RNA sequence: GUGAGUGUAGCCCAGCGGUUAAGGCGCCAGGUUGUGGCCCUGGAGAUCGAGGGUUCAAAUCCCUCCACUCACCCCA
């Protein structure tokens, strides 16, 4: 039997209310903060991703779904949302619009990773990018927006961590300090951290191994090595967050796994203990546009995992609105009444009232049972009597009351009752 | 990529070497000649995750593979 490919899943009708709810709230919050929707292709030139995420990032090293098309081009299924939006910003000359340009998306993301609860090979992200402005006020707004998004969904048990990882001016100096510090403890590092020391020393800080954690706690802090501008940027960010009453925690070990981040990085974490500790996160990327071939342009973005958000909605027992279902089911007694029943169903639909007629030659009892399990408000019964008199029997499934209504009055009757 | 656990009808699950694999939910039908939800009765639905092996005999023991879950890694 065929089954969905590993790490992918079907979203059945019962789950859809959650998805609709989250997507709706995302659209609402974006409207509130002036973000406009953008959709980019599901695959891009492989180099767009390998250039931006960083040669030694896990995404590029082992998680990309890369394939060659018939023309011999190397393409990759979107492993993250930011680079395609930056590409679109450059390609369409969005730098000519009022800055910052604020865009959002809801997109599938593909990463070849070992599946786990809350972790999939195809998952969905709600992401925002604000491009063309370096002011920390914008960082604060983006973070506040994420905060309000989770709040508006009804989530209460999550927290926010922020950090600054500096810029081109100050990071190299810090990395030298960090590397020198760790070089002294080389022997005590775990296997992964030994490679991190060579390839990507910043990542040493968020290793979870107990021994490495001790070293990380005592390691030189990025925040102590920030240049004047970065320091000011970070203190402004904190000031703004306080003005906006967003509670946060500074975590000097928060670094994030993508090389293009500069200055601000942030992460939202659910309070609940679990293996998946990130609900969403993001950061500033002031060199990315330039690296991808555009003119120097600062930007900041965020990405929120929709599956993880839904997981937490369930954990917190948030009730989501049910989606409107079918309003009317046409039932008929006797074969000759089918034509009339089809006609009336069509009439109702043209008036914007959802209606279908039962299929097959079932008896009335079975048809009503179907009406019951579909949860329709009305079952409309048509038998020979009704056809003869040009009427219809309208049964209100909620209270079992029935009324005989002339076909000519049916639409207004149902609209009035609703 | 590494380690551990699990895998029985659409769903939840009993059985853990021996005649036709049990139960609940759901589904379908009957109990009403034109009437749902409750109740009663009946029915359909399972090559016991897949393949191979051990045995007179395997859902039950062994091996391989696949999937899911958990931990690591990493992230959303």
Task: Provide a compact summary of the structure.
The chain is an alpha+beta fold and 418 residues long.
Textual characterization of the structure:
A hairpin with a 5-residue loop joins strand 3 (66-68) and strand 4 (74-77). Helix 1 packs antiparallel against helix 5 and helix 5 packs parallel to helix 9. This protein has helices spanning 16-33, 46-53, 58-63, 82-91, 136-153, 171-183, 191-199, 210-218, 228-243, 288-291, 306-315, 338-350, 364-374, 384-389, 410-417, and strands at residues 36-37, 43-45, 66-68, 74-77, 101-110, 122-131, 158-164, 249-250, 262-270, 280-284, 299-305, 328-332, 355-357, 378-382, 391-396, 402-406. The protein is 38% helix and 21% strand. The protein folds into two domains: 13-170 and 226-315, Bira Bifunctional Protein, Domain 2 (BirA Bifunctional Protein, domain 2), CATH 3.30.930.10; 328-413, Rossmann fold, CATH 3.40.50.800. The protein starts with 15 loop residues before the first helix and ends with a helix. The model has no long low-confidence stretch (mean pLDDT 92). The chain binds one RNA strand of 76 nucleotides through residues 1, 3, 6, 57-59, 62-63, 80, 109, 111, 113-120, 123-127, 192, 208-209, 256-258, 275-281, 303-309, 331, 333-334, 363-373, 379, 381, 383-385, 393, 395, 397, 400, 402.
């Amino acid at each position: 039997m065929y089954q969905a490919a590993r790490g992918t899943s079907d979203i059945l009708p019962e789950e859809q209310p959650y998805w609709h709810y989250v997507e709706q709230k995302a659209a609402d919050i974006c409207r509130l903060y002036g973000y406009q929707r953008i959709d980019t292709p599901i695959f891009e030139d492989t180099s767009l991703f390998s250039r931006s995420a960083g040669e030694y990032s896990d995404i590029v090293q082992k998680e990309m779904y890369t394939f060659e098309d018939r023309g011999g081009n190397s393409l990759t299924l979107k492993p993250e949302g930011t680079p395609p939006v930056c590409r679109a910003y450059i390609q369409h000359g969005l730098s000519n619009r009022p800055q910052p340009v604020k865009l959002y998306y809801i997109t599938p993301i593909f990463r070849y990773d070992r599946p786990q609860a809350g972790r999939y090979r195809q998952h969905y992200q709600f992401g925002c990018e604000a491009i063309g402005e370096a002011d920390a006020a914008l960082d604060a707004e983006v973070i506040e927006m994420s905060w309000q998004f989770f709040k508006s969904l009804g989530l209460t048990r999550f927290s926010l961590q922020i950090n600054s990882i500096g810029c081109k001016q100050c990071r190299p100096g810090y990395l030298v300090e960090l590397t020198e510090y760790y070089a002294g403890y080389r022997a005590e590092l775990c296997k992964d951290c030994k490679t991190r020391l060579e390839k990507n020393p910043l990542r040493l800080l968020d290793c979870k191994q107990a021994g490495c954690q001790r070293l990380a706690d005592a390691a030189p802090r990025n925040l102590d090595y920030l240049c004047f501008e970065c320091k000011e940027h970070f203190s402004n960010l904190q000031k703004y967050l306080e003005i906006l009453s967003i509670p946060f925690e500074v975590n000097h070990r928060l670094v994030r796994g993508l090389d293009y981040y500069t200055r601000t990085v942030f992460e939202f974490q659910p309070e609940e203990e679990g293996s998946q500790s990130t609900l969403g996160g993001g950061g500033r990327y002031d060199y990315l546009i330039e690296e991808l071939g555009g003119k120097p342009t600062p930007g900041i973005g965020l990405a929120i995992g929709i599956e993880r958000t839904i997981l937490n909605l369930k954990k917190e027992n948030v009730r989501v609105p049910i989606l409107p279902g079918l309003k009317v089911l046409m039932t008929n007694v006797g074969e000759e009444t089918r034509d009339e029943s089809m006609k009336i169903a069509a009439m109702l639909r043209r008036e914007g009232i959802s209606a279908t007629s039962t299929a097959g030659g079932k008896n009335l009892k079975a048809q009503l049972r179907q009406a019951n399990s579909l949860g329709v408000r009305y079952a409309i019964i048509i038998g020979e009597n009704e056809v003869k008199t040009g009427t219809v029997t309208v049964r209100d499934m909620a209270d079992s009351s029935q009324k005989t209504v002339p076909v000519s009055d049916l639409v207004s009757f149902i609209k009035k009752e609703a």
